[in-house]
Amino acid sequence: MKASEIKKGSVIEVDGAVVYITELQVQTASSRSGNTLYKVRGRNVVNRQKFQGSFKGDEQVQTVDFERRAVQFLYRESDGCTFMDRDTFEQHGFDLEALESELPYLTEGLEGIFALVVDGVAVGIELPATVILEVMDCAPAIKGASASARNKPATLSTGLVVQVPEYLAAGEVIKVNTVSGEFMSRA
């Protein structure tokens, strides 16, 4: 596939190493003749080392086949998180660093989580598109504030901070987009 088709959660092969992509940044050239660059960050599946690289948009990238397995979030410890395969009951552990971008959305009983498995090894997790989280702390709600009014920061039950409309108050439950990290609606 072309580098322009790489997405977060893709598994590619780079110089013989299998890499799970955790971050993608698109850098568009300012000149007409310039190429768009796709900067990726990820983890080597075998030795768990960090990977950084960049590709031109039309550059060919070798993809790796992987399996999506439904998993359940079991528990979080000081050094990592454990998930259980819903079909085989096999447990998969990830260190906190490997789940850095997913941690703010993980809650007990969260449905719709998938483990990405390459050659029998879980390399990462895929969250559902949206999660429901409780607002723990924010500035007091302003009476008469409309949905199109200004936003304010709110700290959610997992520690994630998102911008929410002024009419929301602590204790309310909201829906958050896991891709953009933005407030979507009340739950």
TrEMBL record:
Keyword hit for Disulfide bond: no
Can you quote a single GO CC term? Answer: cytosol
Which keywords does this Swiss-Prot/TrEMBL entry list?
Answer: Elongation factor, Protein biosynthesis
Q: Which PROSITE patterns match?
A: EFP
Outline the extent of the Elongation factor P C-terminal domain.
131-186
Q: Where are the transmembrane segments?
A: none
One BP term from GO: peptide biosynthetic process
Which GO molecular-function terms appear in the entry?
translation elongation factor activity
Any idea where the Translation elongation factor P/YeiP central domain is?
68-123
Protein family = Belongs to the elongation factor P family.
Which PANTHER family did the record assign?
A: ELONGATION FACTOR P, TRANSLATION ELONGATION FACTOR KOW-LIKE DOMAIN-CONTAINING PROTEIN
What NCBIfam families does UniProt report for this protein, alphabetically? PRK00529.1 (NF001810), PRK04542.1 (NF003392)
Can you name this protein? Answer: Elongation factor P-like protein
Native source species: Candidatus Thiodictyon syntrophicum
